[in-house]
Amino acid sequence: MMMLDLDKYFTIESLQRDKGESANKECNHSLETTCGKTSGSAISLSVKLRENSSHDFPISEYSLYRDNVWLLEYTTGKNPTKIHFYKEDEKYNGLKRVLLYYAIPDFSLSGTIKSYSTTRSYSNLFNIFISYVFKHNHLSANDRTDIDCITPSMLNEALDRAKNNNDAPRHYSSMFSMIRLWLSLSRQRSIPEKYRLDIDFTSVDNKKRHKDVVNHFQGIVSTWVPFSESELAKLMEYSLFWLESALPELINVRDYLGGLDLANKSSATFYSWEPNEEFEKLTNITIHEINVMSSSRIYSKTKLENRSKPYSYTWKNQYAIALDHVRNALFIFVGLLIGMRAREIGQIMLDDIYIDNNGEYWINITRFKTTNDSNYQGETEVIPIPSFIGDCVSSFKHLKSLSDFNKESYLFQSNKGRKVLNNFTDAQIKLITNEIKKFTGIERVHNHRFRKTIAEILINRSEKNIDLIRMLFGHESYAMTLKYIARNPFMVNAIAEAIEVNFTKDFHEVLRSIRDESYSGKSAEKIAHAMIKTPEKFVGKQLKLQVINYVSHILSSGEMWFIHRSALGTYCIHSGEIKKDDLPPCLIGKKNLGQFLSPDVTNCQLDCQYCVAIEKSRKAISDNINFYHSVLESTDNIGKKAGKMIRKKLAANEKHLEELDMNHHRVKRTLKMKVVQL
């Protein structure tokens, strides 16, 4: 049994490719919502406005089109979703209404918008768009002659200004999205003529501009887009329903149908001389008012006359739909807890997940490096998986052993289709994520978001998050989860990336000072040693990737990572789980400590082994030393206990100052390198 090797798997090239692919998918998904053809069965806004002069038709359950505030939805525990049409913006409100109408889920182009939160985000994009196109050129959006003044060069110039706005780098893609929406609706005559833009759309919305927007997005926007708490709750509700509630019932159906000798028949219609109450009862399942499985009964008088069974039951298509729901639920859990790339997750076969003699589940992973050779089949290695997933996959295999559902035995292939699948591509992954979007109402369900979500939970852990982790992994303790993570380099890297994204500024400040100036503390010594050992990885573009690689090695030992700046200007860099019988100085004496502990940086103590001092903290340390000396020298009646405490603090400060002096330019001198700005 061979485990994945972290260094071989997470090369610089693979990390860069992952980030690039994630960014491209994220940006392209956003752009897809602003272009396309309106449904042929839908009534365009142009027709509605022409036939209803009072504009009192509904745009939601709560509001009419003409209202000054569109109330779109009420969400329990949150503010209602609204779009405002302010009086002071009257000359822009007409265009705002016609464009945002198509950003509402019920009316969106090609049905690509599923959430009212997306509608609200388009309201913000509209304000950016108005600023660059109309306000900058002193034009009114309610004046047809002003709109006629807008030329392709004017729009391209506005896009270029947005691109060059370093203070608001996201404006470029936001502007392009709104212009695409406007052009698309104008071209289809889906908005009133008064607001249509009559220009050649390819002069603005073309391949060159599209590629430039995507490249710019990749360069300035982090691809770190974990699911929100509410989105994760929806994913869990959907998944656990099909894996915990529906799956056992489907097992009963499968065993019953198998006993009827239907297990190996591709045409699996069940025939009966009379209505079969047992068959109907066992093959029609509803749980919590959700239809899990159903069968249909057909009566044929002709068959009875021909002395054959007149009642026939069809069940296979409904069974296949239920199997796909279970598959979707497994996809969510595998994505969250194993964190593979899309290409790798698509290659998983049913038999790639198995249980060993010790009762532990494992998964064979076919990993792909940087090769573009279509004949390259990858290298298969193995990682552990949580028992909950393993048990569910075992049950899923049993469900698929009925009739011809095994097919080519890809774990995540569709069970509804009958077409032979020779290879599992990104198109199949997209079908799954589209179904998950449909049944959960969550926007932007991409494979790369799953592993980033669980990593985010792990590094920003709280009592609530730990409960979720325990449920997901089936582990009794957080420590057990960390041991699983350490054996799974996919998740190790995801968490390392999360740490790098969340603590970039702090971590880079520490690295810069260690490399170019000075440092003090055990954690800093470890980093300095790594720099001296592999100096080429701590310069230029290599640095950001090396941060991930460095943290990955720490995590691979089964320890978590914490970094935070303290009020003293020092840093707390802590790895591992804090236990109540071995508290760091910042937590000693505190009451009502929770079950899962993190350092308290508001009470940072310089005698702590996790404290890192850098050059910028030198002045604060020197001031502390002067203060403690003055206290000891000027106070005659200081108590023994207080005096001992002050001398301890003084010694800690003096030690850091001594090490800062001793390590001044140490790494720089050793490497004989120039200062490189981060």
Structural account:
The protein is of the alpha+beta class. It has 26 helices and 14 strands. The strands form 5 sheets. Strands 11-14-13-12 form a 4-stranded antiparallel sheet, sandwiched between helices. Strands 3-7-6 form a 3-stranded antiparallel sheet, with no helix packed on it. A 3-stranded antiparallel sheet has the order 8-9-10, covered by helices on one side. β4 and β5 form a beta hairpin. The longest helix has 31 residues, at 229-259. Residues 370-376 and 674-678 have low confidence and may be disordered. It comes from Psychrobacter glacincola.
Tell me the strand percentage band.
5-15%
The main sheet orders its strands as: 11-14-13-12
Average pLDDT, rounded to a whole number, is: 83
Going by helix content, strand content and strand pairing, the class is alpha+beta
Largest sheet: 4 strands, antiparallel
Rg, alpha carbons? 31 Å
- Unreliable stretches (pLDDT < 50, length at least 5) are 370-376, 674-678
Overall outline:
globular
DSSP summary, beta strand count: 14
Number of helices: 26
Helical amount: 40-55%
Separation of termini? 42 Å
Keywords: DNA recombination
Protein name: Tyrosine-type recombinase/integrase
Organism: Psychrobacter glacincola
Domain Tyr recombinase: 308-497
